[in-house]
């Protein structure tokens, strides 16, 4: 198994503000991405409070499993910073003042022309035999110590200082993973089917133990298929990832709208520009969100002419020339209304495409016939008008109903242009 | 020490996307805040990949230290979801199909009128003797199992589902912590001054060691002043927090726009409703975002009549009756344009207030005279028209420029109504 041939790494984040939930830890994810890129298998992240015993236990356990451990946080000058003490207990050596570290702290305060507090002197303490990691951004030097065959790198918790120090002083001396498996990843973003449905179509690719690793996550109705391939060199890893990506593309077809950070509006923008089409929008329940998404994309003035947010009923009739009959007969939330709005919008803006939304975003305003979450999306083009009915209310709140309605509309535009 | 008399809790987050650093785990912090509020001492968070052995080890170790363990993630229907298997190994019992869980999954798919994939059936498996935790938002039921005297609650990783299930089905049955110290918090949200400026006005309240604890954070131009008071009973803690909140209010005055989760649009909505005023919007560079924010608020149809997104120049003149002269003389991004748009919008929608934006959101389109980030915000009312010029381009990207412009517009509406 490839697992065994990889070198293990772990991270430990220290801080009572983290264990109490006041702050979300972002250091572990940042470090994990760096370590994964360097070929390490990141086994675990541990978050412990500012207590020496907890820090000691976490460092010892991690050093027993991993070759590289990166600890962040708890190196400050105040009484609640206990990481150096916890590290000393874990390595079994007393803290001693490191002259290089003390000189470094002195020079920092000289550089910023501020007096050094006596408490900053504590930041020069390292377990005997350990060494300092230079910090060019702040007062707290890092510490590097060995426990058995594991190297423990301790960095400050401030993300900016931590990142610079990792890149400067940790990354360059990481052991080169000998039979290092180079990693290549592809992420295919899908819309229009459930996670389970997509999972079934590629179940064999996701089988446990198969290489490349293929997994699926769902976030706000966007399903992401992630392919993580490894190989002895970058070319081999990339070839393996590309082969799987091609296979996923083949099976999922137009469900895939883009890769990496591409969002639905980016895919729509690319199509509108390549097809040289313009678009206008008339929104009711989505209240501007559809136009906002379309104009999130830099350069959107190439295709986006404008929009109307027809919230009040009389705005629908006066601005979009929807006949009062439609409202009287079918109501503002109806297929007929979405259709009339789309036609009215297209003739008002003289755009190639016009897209409309009308619905009940809730939480109030629903009836048994027209429940919260009922949304009609209309799309008018030279080919005519198409309306889709969505039922989004069962599990979703107002913001989610609006988000899903907009995504459905963007996806309709995408499919129309394909 | 209160620490010893507290009851220990831990969290475990499962997901290879977390250990690889693709996703930042926010569940642990959310759960930790809830558990801390309930009087628990949160000892540790552990993050492990989707591997049964790692999940088993983490659950066993946590159950050995804590009375309550909450595990999130890895309950999905696809092959890479291994939490139920890991849990079964940790409790030492085989997985069996839970009829209640299966019925629950069936009823979910009936309710949303979609066929159930065969793989969803796996989500009804629980270790023998364990019970299901109902999920009202998605397909994955949670699992509750005992290991010795520790209760392990397993919830889905999707934050929204996890949060609702924790509040509904975990929080009510948590053991009551006997001699807990009560905490009361207030959060005052401010807009219109820098973090440093606000910090200076309340520096004495923020002194280290002072009770209550007062701290400041800045996020996307909203400055939050947090007051955390503790006391032997809820009344004492609340009194202390309220006294500080009153003092902060007194010093910061109209910079404070609301408390807790209140956003600028909520404060604006409350004022519009209490003053019985209606509003309409004409946006250019913000492309729908201002209307979107105003309609984020449930019940926004009470005040929001509608809007126009005048992206193309000819839309500005045809729809908002801005004379071609204004564009020719001053350009589309100008004080005159913001003014004309506001007047045109107000007479088109017949609203009490009309607010407009025109600017250069970038990244392209800037010139030395009109740089990226230059935005004019106009507000028209019975009292006349006011235009404010913003320069937001120095450090901000397109999305941030649009966000700040909309916040400035919302704040102008708020101050106009106060």
Briefly summarize what is shown:
Chain A has helices at residues 2-5, 16-19, 27-37, 52-65, 83-91, 99-112, 159-170, 195-201, 234-252, 264-274, 289-295, 313-320, 324-330, 335-349, 398-417, and strands spanning 7-14, 40-48, 68-72, 95-97, 125-127, 131-133, 142-147, 150-155, 182-190, 213-219, 222-231, 256-259, 279-283, 304-310, 353-359, 374-381, 384-391. With 418 residues, the first copy, chain A, is of the alpha/beta class.
Can you offer a commentary on this structure?
2 copies of one chain form a homodimer. Chain A has 418 residues and is α/β, with parallel strands linked by helices. The first copy, chain A, folds into 3 domains: 2-173, MoaB/Mog-like domain (Molybdenum Cofactor Biosythetic Enzyme, Chain A, 3-Layer(aba) Sandwich); 182-259, Alpha-Beta Plaits, CATH 3.30.70.2860; 264-417, Maf protein (Alpha-Beta Complex). The first copy, chain A, contains 15 helices and 17 strands. In chain A, the strands form 4 sheets. Chain A has a 6-stranded mixed β-sheet with strand order 2-1-3-8-7-6, with helices on both faces. In chain A, strands 14-13-15-16-17 form a 5-stranded mixed β-sheet, with helices on both faces. A 4-stranded antiparallel β-sheet of chain A has the order 10-11-9-12. The longest helix of chain A is centred in the last third of the chain and has 20 residues, at 398-417. The radius of gyration of chain A is 28 Å and the shape is elongated. The interface between A and B is large, with 85 and 87 residues. Strand 14 of chain A pairs antiparallel with strand 14 (304-310) of chain B, so a sheet runs across the interface.
């Amino acid at each position: 198994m490839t697992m065994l041939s990889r070198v293990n790494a772990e991270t430990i984040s220290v801080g009572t503000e983290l264990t109490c939930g006041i702050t979300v830890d972002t250091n572990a994810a940042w470090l994990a991405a760096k370590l994964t890129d360097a070929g390490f298998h990141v086994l675990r992240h541990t978050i412990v409070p500012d207590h020496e015993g907890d820090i000691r236990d976490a460092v010892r356990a991690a050093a027993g499993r991993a070759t590289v451990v990166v600890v962040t946080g708890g190196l400050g000058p105040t009484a609640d910073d206990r990481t150096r003490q916890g590290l000393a207990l874990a390595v079994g050596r007393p803290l001693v003042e490191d002259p290089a570290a003390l000189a470094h702290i002195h020079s920092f305060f000289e550089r910023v022309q501020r007096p050094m507090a006596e408490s900053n002197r504590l930041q020069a303490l390292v377990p005997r035999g350990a060494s300092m990691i230079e910090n060019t951004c702040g007062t707290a030097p890092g510490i590097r110590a060995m426990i058995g065959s594991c190297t423990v790198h301790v960095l400050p918790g401030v993300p900016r200082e931590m990142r610079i120090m990792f890149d400067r002083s940790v990354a360059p001396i990481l052991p080169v993973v000998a039979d290092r498996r180079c990693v290549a990843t592809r992420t295919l973003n899908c819309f229009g089917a459930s996670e389970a449905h997509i999972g079934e179509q590629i179940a064999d690719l996701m089988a446990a133990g198969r290489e490349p690793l293929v997994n699926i996550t769902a976030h706000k109705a966007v399903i992401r298929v992630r392919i993580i391939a490894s190989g002895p060199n970058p070319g081999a890893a990339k070839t393996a990832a590309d082969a799987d990506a091609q296979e996923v593309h083949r099976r999922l077809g137009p469900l895939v709208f883009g890769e990496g950070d591409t969002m639905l509006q980016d895919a729509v923008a690319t199509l509108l520009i390549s097809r040289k089409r313009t678009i206008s929008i008339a929104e009711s329940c989505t209240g501007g969100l559809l136009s906002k998404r379309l104009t999130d994309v830099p350069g959107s003035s190439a295709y986006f002419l404008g929009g109307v947010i027809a919230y009040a009923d009389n705005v629908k009739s006066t601005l979009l020339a929807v006949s009062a009959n439609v409202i009287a007969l079918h109501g503002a939330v109806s297929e007929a209304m979405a259709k009339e709005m789309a036609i009215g919008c297209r003739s008002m803006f003289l755009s190639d495409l016009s897209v409309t939304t009308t619905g009940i975003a809730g939480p109030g305003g629903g009836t048994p016939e027209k429940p919260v979450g009922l949304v009609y999306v209309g799309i008018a083009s030279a080919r005519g008008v198409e309306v889709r009915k969505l039922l989004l209310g069962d599990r979703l709140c107002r913001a989610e109903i609006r988000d899903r309605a907009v995504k459905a509309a963007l996806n309709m535009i995408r499919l129309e242009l394909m």
